[in-house]
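Record format v2
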Amino acid sequence: MEIWSILEPLAKVLLYVLSFLAVGTGLFILHFRSLLSQPTFAYCRNLVSKSSFTGSIVAPLQILITAGNIGGDLRSVFDPLMINIALTSKAGQADLVLFSGFLIVFLWISFFQRRNFPLGVVGFILILLSFSVYGHSTINGLSSQLLIVLHLGAISFWVGSFLPLRYSTLGKVKEENLFQIAHRFGVYAVYYIGVLLISGLTLGAILVGGIDQLLNSDYGKAFLLKIAFVTTLLGIGAINKFRLVPQLKNNNFPYVIKLRRSINIEISILFIILVISSLLTTSIELPLK
Amino acid sequence: MFRRTIAVFTLVVFPIMAIAHSPLQKANPANGAVLETPPTEYKMLFKSPAKLIKFEIFQKGNNDNKKSSLLKNLFKNSDRKLIEINYKPLLVLSESHSIKLPNINVGSYEVHWRAMGEDGHVLKGILTFEVKGK
């Protein structure tokens, strides 16, 4: 097996995670700024800053990995011809859009003020748009590209909220507004998950084609596996919303610990979903229609 | 707990990710073909337009470099010889590409190719053929 077969999807998963953290935790800040304690706000800001900074380094590195993969040897990573081919490909253009998005989010969070939020939103949109420039999402033109941007935007909010929520449950933080934050997260999540499911299932239907392809193709089977993990995640989210979060109202510490454990499990499942998504976009062919 | 899950899943899934379907519809000489006369060109037909970036042809079991060492054997297959064809990357997106071959002798050959699809994905593969002579 070639090193590129590991490096390329690995970089893709890493860029997914960094994008979701930069956009999602950024959205979390915009939604919850007034409720966050100073330590939690500092944690969120640090998370967005580190993920956008790292992203602005990994995105150009991905162009070099693509150059290496095109040429098939280490020399190609530094070969101007291979770099040029990588840069002028749709994948390279997507990387440049992603890089500029990370850079803008990094600038926004470094000089954060409530009134300069449009700058952050521009960065978020660029990051999300970069995933619609090439690959399967372009197969049905603008409609599928819009669906992928909405889908990833909704996932980002979900993913990017987990770490700040988990941080808020740590004993040392003493988040006074934990109940309000968790409760309001549950309310926003209903809308975001609605967008996530509608856009994801519509996109899936466009890409898979039909029940027969869903059940009999590799792509369809991987898609079903992804849906199984997403359903599990939704089930855990529902338990949190209806059973754990109401108990936080009275500062019931054992339930705070239960919520933290539950978020840990959710993060593990999310990672598995991200890897399956990376597989679906890089290594598994769409079924023939 | 989630660190363990991530580690196990990564170890299991990434090798699977390397398994991809062939993006080639047809090659001439076909993969595994046994020919009486040496081909003068190699034709590749892709399922969708692609740029053929790299094309290398090796003759198997014919390495003039007799000074083999453990280190050399580790880093390259010493049991084959690269045939000089002075290949320039074909940067035009097309479903079919033809490559002129030099005069080749009787023997087994391996074609290593790499291409870039219209959507930016890197495509690659190894094909073989044999020239047996009449």
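The longest helix of chain A spans residues 38-71.
Chain A has a mean pLDDT of 87.
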